[in-house]
């Protein structure tokens, strides 16, 4: 696929088919992940690719519990009152579907990052993992596979780590379900570039 077609049509796909993803496609996706930039070239990332049915089922249970925690957060509690056909209502319905059906995704990827000794997780920690996460999602899109990024699992982070044997000093930075989409790819609704990109000074449209 053309690069810009991939980038502009790779939207969050939370409604996924249960069809198996071929090993060859999964290998291509993960090879794209490890070619991402890495801060200081540490490559301190790791990826747990979950296909085992029982583990996916347990992840689904934990994720539903985490969803319940998320819905107590004021922003999402407010969004739950939005009309079903509003942007907020549609977003919430899509996210709720994932919460109820995560275990049905044929592949669930946990993107992890190891912290330097004595370091604490911070905003910049993501600089060493999120480019790889985006590469996963872009490569999946190029292969016709849907994905989305979520961090809701972190409400049950300890249990997720125990389930998958992830060391306590490793951050589970993102959870990415992969599956062939039930919906269609397409350009997502976004604000115009002129509203968010500034020329030399804040507020001056590019």
Strand and helix layout:
Blueprint: H1 3-9, H2 23-33, E1 45-50, H3 53-70, H4 74-79, H5 87-101, E2 107-114, H6 130-142, E3 146-147, H7 157-164, E4 170-179, H8 193-196
Structure description:
By secondary structure, the protein is an alpha+beta fold. The chain has one domain (about 15-180): NADH Oxidase (3-Layer(aba) Sandwich), CATH 3.40.109.10. It is about 40% helix and about 15% strand. The chain has a 4-stranded antiparallel beta sheet. The longest helix is centred in the N-terminal third of the chain and has 18 residues, at about 55-70. The chain is globular. The mean pLDDT is about 95.
Question: Short description, anyone?
Answer:
This protein has 206 residues and is α+β, with helices and mostly antiparallel strands. It is built from 8 helices and 4 strands.
Gyration radius over CA: 18 Å
Q: What would CATH call the homologous superfamily?
A: NADH Oxidase
Helix content: 25-40%
Number of separate strands: 4
Query: What's the overall average pLDDT, rounded?
Result: 93
Classified by CATH, the class is: Alpha Beta
Proportion of residues in β-strands: 5-15%
Report the uncertain regions: none
What is the fold-level CATH name, i.e. the topology? NADH Oxidase
Order of helices and strands: HHEHHHEHEHEH
């Amino acid at each position: 696929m053309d690069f810009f077609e991939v980038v502009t049509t790779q939207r969050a796909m939370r409604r996924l088919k249960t069809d198996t993803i071929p090993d060859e496609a999964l290998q291509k996706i993960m090879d794209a992940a490890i070619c991402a930039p890495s801060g200081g070239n540490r490559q301190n990332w790791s990826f747990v690719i979950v296909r085992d049915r029982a583990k996916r089922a347990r992840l689904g249970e934990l994720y539903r519990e985490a969803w319940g925690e998320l819905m107590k957060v004021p922003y999402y509690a407010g969004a739950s009152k939005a009309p079903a056909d509003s942007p907020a209502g549609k977003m919430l319905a899509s996210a709720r579907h994932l919460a109820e059906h995560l275990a049905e995704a044929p592949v669930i990827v946990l993107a992890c990052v190891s912290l330097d000794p004595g370091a604490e997780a911070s905003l910049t920690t993501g600089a060493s993992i999120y480019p790889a996460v985006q590469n996963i999602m872009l490569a999946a899109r190029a292969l016709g596979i849907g994905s989305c990024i979520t961090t809701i699992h972190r409400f049950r982070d300890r249990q997720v780590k125990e389930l998958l044997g992830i060391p306590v000093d490793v951050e589970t930075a993102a959870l990415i379900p992969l599956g062939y989409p039930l919906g269609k790819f397409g350009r997502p609704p976004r604000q115009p570039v002129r509203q968010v990109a500034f020329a030399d000074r804040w507020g001056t449209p590019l």
